[in-house]
Amino acid sequence: MVASHLTNKKLSPTTEDSKPVPKFGRLEISLKKTTVLDWLRKQPFYPRFYFARHDGNYEIGGAGSVLHIRHSSTPDIRPLFQEMNSILQSSQPGIRFYGGLRFPAGTSPSVEWEELGSWLFFIPKFEIINSEGVTRLIYNYSLDHPFEEHPQLSEFPLEEERKSFRRPRKKLIARRRDIPNRKQWQEMLKKATKEFKAGKLKKIVLARRSGFELSYPLDPFRFFSDLYHQNPQAFAFLLQPEQDYTFMGISPERLYYRQRGTIWSEAVAGTRPRGKSSKQDEKFTRELLTDQKELKEHRWVVKEIERKLKTLCIQSTKLSQEEIIKFAYVQHLCTRFQGQLKAGLSDADLISQLHPTPAVAGYPRTVALKRIREWEPFDRGWYAGLIGWLEKSAAEFVLALRSAVLKDRSMLVYAGAGIVKESDPAREWKELDNKILNYTRALSEI
Questions:
Q1: Is the pLDDT confidence value at 272 over 80?
Q2: pTM over 0.85
């Protein structure tokens, strides 16, 4: 078997260095419906990428690389998207980049994010797509040097062959450490309260990193599969830039989906736990729909997304307002939007305007980002960044929330809470614990 190897590619506009734009083609065949995660786990190629929508009708996987772009610092994203768009315009329709980029607060990545850098995008050697009951396998190749490699794929597990990934029960968590700890968390919220009183901030999202030392290594695909199947309503993602490093998550929130000139986006903010019974669950739902603190937090996000869409779109509208979306351990308020984009906008324009939303940073954005950099005692890295895919006529990016890094015998799990002047530190700390229950319960039960 021939494995694809990652190589860093520095961005330099082709108009300046006179290098020809790389061009890529694709071959596509139909398959019996295949379990994408199982297929991806068996492939010997890196990077490996998985993405599934919350409606359960769309999942994609990519393995290996015919082109790989990675950057370790945090420069302007426009050269990146100009480069990718040039390649997509020169290539056959359907060619895609998979990958993502870090949260914009911070400078260079800390050690736990070195494998991902500030951004990483790649065109996979192989793709597999399940869409509304149809499975397709795609082989991507260079049109400049076609078929110079002949890698071999591993087997295709059929959908009905999926097996349980459980292993014999044995204590897995050796140690847990939260950064910030509870005392530091209270101090951060005191600082936020001063900013609210001074009128400098309306909302800020503060995050926590929970580190777990493990007694033995985990199979990332097996762990992630169980995580996702407990939360089929989420956007699920997994990225392995190389062996023994996995970034994964089950996000509640799409930043945007673009299909030609139409964009869909959503605001997700405001949280309650799930109830232990249907009666208690409904009680929490009613609280969420009427709690002024939660509604205020949600409406800051809605207001800002509406404002941004007005600058990006000829017209935009709400598809829904303050509906409830439910996951395994938490439920949220959600408002959905649709708009018709103005001509000439790039995905870099959309990302620069929309990300980060008040749902992951705060409001006003500039002040919130500055305080996040100053106050949080760790590097968010790709947590609350973006992950997704891009092709010539479409793109889709979700916020990398409810996410974790698994490396060797260590797992780092990230979560954040929206803070407004009415916030209670103890309640917000409990919300962080609720948001990572998918991980802590899965780790305790293995």
A1: yes
A2: yes
